């Protein structure tokens, strides 16, 4: 059996089937890597939590008065300058629109309140994860991820003169789609497989309830940054210890850490700390405090939870140092080049065959 011919046929038809979805996912993935740098969103380092977070409780109190039928969720840093943080507000009855409020954590001034999931990042995530098609779209994206892994394996397996293709400049004149396709496929192959496999894992994990799997599995193993709503959807009451003191204590337990998110309830406070220098499965850690401000010892996270934390760290690159994030952005261009040049090569290969068949037909004399 000619394995190379089999790989070639599989590569062409799987690539054609995945091309449109892969292009959308590749473009939105690149945009999601760039968007936090534009809006300066992400975890932040707090040199003085008592000053930086002095107004968080004030802002939550004002929101509780203005929106009494909504309950606060995660509190997320909104900028590296700590001037704009945000908190999600969910309807207590489960009916009605969810809201997202921005506030100044230093003064407690509420800046604006909008409908949730209307930001650029939310739109990109919906398109990236489900193509705006709900469960059907997620299934399509999952199938595409498996197809991309198949394409990378078959493409590298059947390629000849890999070293020459890798060391030759794809932009050297005359510019050829084939050389560009081979070069970007080889250079970005490792990242493409990494993104496809970790993205598949994360999407399956987040979609377990929608796919008919009990939500208890997800609740037990959810990463700290995605705590179950039952632990957050409660109206906050003033704890005996201030929130800033608990944040300061959490950062003291993890020197060099950054505040990734906060969650407050009548039972206490959860501080999610990001450590960029830690191993991928330990980058995000939850530090819990009771209502009196006493530290609650954390249990060792289960293995599945560590895998999910590592998958998210490796998939996004947003939890890494800036230089590695720049590498992610640079290599995110390779899937776009691959998915554009691939169909082009497929069409060029079929056009000569079609023209040859037409010429042969014209040569046959009519009866």
UniProtKB/TrEMBL annotation:
Q: Which PANTHER family match?
A: IRON-REGULATED INNER MEMBRANE PROTEIN-RELATED
Name the source organism: Brevundimonas pondensis
- UniProt keyword terms in alphabetical order: Membrane, Transmembrane, Transmembrane helix
Q: Where are the transmembrane segments?
A: 12-34, 139-159, 180-205, 326-347
- Designated name of the protein: PepSY domain-containing protein
Entry superkingdom: Bacteria
InterPro entries, A to Z: PepSY-ass_TM
Instruction: List the Pfam families.
Output: PepSY_TM
